[in-house]
Amino acid sequence: MVLDHIALIVSSEECLRFYEKLGFKETNRFERNYDTVVFMENRGIVLEIFIDPNHPERVNSPEAKGLRHIAFTVDSLDDVMKLVECEEIRTDWFGRKFTFTKDLDGQPIELKEKA
After folding, report:
1. What pLDDT was estimated at residue 1?
2. With contact defined as beta carbons under 8 Å apart, do 75 and 42 qualify?
3. Cα(7)–Cα(49) distance, integer angstroms
4. What's the CA angle centered on 103, arms 81 and 87, to 5 degrees?
5. What are the chain's domains?
6. Three-state DSSP class for 79?
7. Angle of CA points 42, 4, 36, to nearest 5°
8. Please, are residues 112 and 22 in contact by the beta-carbon 8 Å criterion?
């Protein structure tokens, strides 16, 4: 079994810029009557992004059950932190450096530096 894609709902076209800063590039776009679906890809990771301002806000506090965050491996945390605002760098359970950021709609994104 292999992960096929990650689906996200965002509130606006501007939210795509965040994922572009992380290296994702748009590969397909589909306009529907009620939303726009954009596929973005980076190193084999596919995001299916639904642009729709009519969905409710993400529940952050307390966290709802289900998907907690998305984690991406990056070459350099220092380089990424120049592009997007992040928390302080910490060390995970296995000794790898990581940090967290959020997209424009508050979706938590974990960034791990290559070992």
Report:
1. 83
2. no
3. 6
4. 40
5. 6-54+67-113 (3.10.180.10)
6. helix
7. 70
8. no
This prediction has a pTM of 0.89
| C-alpha separations of 97 from 8, 44, 76 in Å | 25, 22, 10
- Distance, in Å, from the CA atom of 112 to the CA atom of 1, rounded to the nearest integer, reads 23
Model pLDDT for residues 23-36, shown as the tens digit of each residue: 999 999 999 999 99
Do 5 and 46 form a contact (C-beta atoms < 8 A)? Answer: yes
Length of the chain: 115
Rg of the chain taking only CA atoms, in angstroms: 15
38 Cβ contact partners less than 8 Å away, ≥ 6 residues apart: 16, 26, 28, 29, 30, 48, 49, 51
